[in-house]
């Protein structure tokens, strides 16, 4: 099933499947107050091998870098899973997640969990996975796959990419991967320290039309509306009063229900969206 196991859904049945799936989510919630989280980004490091001008995670803004420890990853994931019925997709992201020394342990732990369906390692393709990571991903081949961001369309970055070697390695190890041919980016503007003073209807509409809003962000035991919000708070641009603190907050399930009932979130008040297409991974000098 498309969301459930990561397998294929015949295209002509896709809409029907999605409709049924959303009905199932709604029923689970209405009847049992069970929450199924569709997608969540775990930020495991802020370190990166590139400095992209329009990075939606604002990574070049970090002066000091943070690596999530394996123990902290375990604690954060456990709290989330204890309070939901399912977590359809975990994105392991960053920064560049392949720079994290314990990424194999992180993948191993997340893959063992019954409640997780799919785990996607998002990488820029500049470094190759080491033997330990390859072995771990092979072990959970039905759940874990790589997403290689296709920055080959940018001639300035191309010399830094090891995409061909990467793909060869994955094919040799029969590991699944995804790379989108026509990979596009939108311009990312800096988040603002002060609220932007628009009316609530403006933020509601911006949130509803925001592509990043489909994916929650978790960083350093705080769950936010999107990964950009996680980085905005971590960079000290604002305090996200709508975030759920996975260590301090009690009744996480109730908090999640309350979280999902909001029309938009505090970070949206600090955010400027753009629909202008830009070349992927343009580098800062
Ligand atoms: C923040 S990156 C982290 C993972 C890794 N460093 C990479 O670049 O693939 C996560 C994903 O966000 C995408 N992304 C970053 N900035 C973007 C933008 N301005 N527009 C569209 N996608 C963007 C990246 O291409 C990547 O697929
Ligand atoms: S988008 Fe660029 S700067 Fe941002 S994390 Fe990925 S490779 Fe690094
Ligand atoms: S803060 Fe709100 S508007 Fe900005 S990227 Fe996140 S969800 Fe979208």
Walk me through the structure.
By secondary structure, the protein is α/β, with parallel strands linked by helices. The protein folds into two domains: 1-34; 37-278, TIM Barrel (Alpha-Beta Barrel), CATH 3.20.20. Helices cover 31% and strands 15% of the residues. The chain contains eight helices and ten strands. It has helices at 14-32, 70-82, 103-112, 131-139, 163-172, 200-208, 227-234, 252-260, and strands spanning 36-43, 86-93, 116-123, 144-148, 177-178, 185-186, 216-219, 222-224, 244-245, 277-278. The strands form two sheets. Strands 5-4-3-2-1-7-8-9 form an eight-stranded mixed beta sheet. A two-stranded antiparallel ribbon has the order 6-10. Strand 3 (116-123), helix 4 (131-139) and strand 4 form a beta-alpha-beta unit. Helix 2 (70-82) packs parallel to helix 3. The longest helix has 19 residues, at 14-32. It is globular, with a radius of gyration of 19 Å. It starts with 13 loop residues before the first helix and ends in a 7-residue tail after the last strand. Residues 1-8 have low confidence and may be disordered. Bound molecules: S-adenosylmethionine and iron/sulfur cluster (2 copies). S-adenosylmethionine is lined by residues 48, 54-57, 93-96, 122-124, 149, 185-186, 188.
């Amino acid at each position: 099933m498309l969301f459930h196991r990561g397998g294929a859904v015949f295209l002509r049945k896709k809409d029907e499947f999605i409709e049924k799936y959303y009905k199932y989510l709604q029923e689970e919630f209405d009847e049992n107050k069970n929450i199924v989280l569709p997608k969540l980004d775990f930020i495991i490091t802020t370190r990166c091998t590139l400095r992209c001008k329009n990075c939606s995670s604002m990574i070049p803004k970090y002066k000091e870098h943070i690596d999530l420890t394996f123990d902290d990853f375990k604690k954060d994931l456990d709290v989330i899973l204890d309070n939901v019925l399912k977590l359809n997709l975990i994105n392991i992201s960053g920064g560049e997640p392949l720079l994290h020394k314990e990424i194999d342990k992180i993948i191993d732990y997340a893959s063992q969990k019954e409640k997780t369906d799919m785990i996607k390692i998002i990488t820029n393709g500049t470094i190759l996975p080491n033997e330990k990571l390859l072995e771990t991903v092979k072990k959970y081949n039905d759940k874990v796959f790589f997403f290689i961001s296709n920055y080959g369309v940018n001639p300035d970055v191309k010399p830094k990419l090891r995409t061909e070697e990467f793909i060869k390695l994955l094919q040799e190890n029969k590991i699944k991967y995804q790379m989108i041919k026509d990979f596009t980016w939108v311009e990312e503007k800096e988040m603002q320290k002060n609220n932007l003073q628009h009316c609530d209807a403006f933020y509601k509409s911006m949130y509803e039309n925001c592509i990043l809003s489909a994916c929650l962000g978790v960083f350093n035991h705080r769950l936010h509306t999107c990964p950009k919000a996680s980085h905005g708070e971590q960079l000290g641009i604002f305090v996200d009063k709508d975030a759920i603190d996975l260590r301090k907050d009690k009744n996480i399930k109730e908090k999640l229900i309350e979280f999902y009932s909001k029309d938009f979130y505090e970070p949206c008040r600090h955010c400027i969206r753009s629909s202008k297409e830009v070349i992927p991974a343009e580098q800062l000098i």
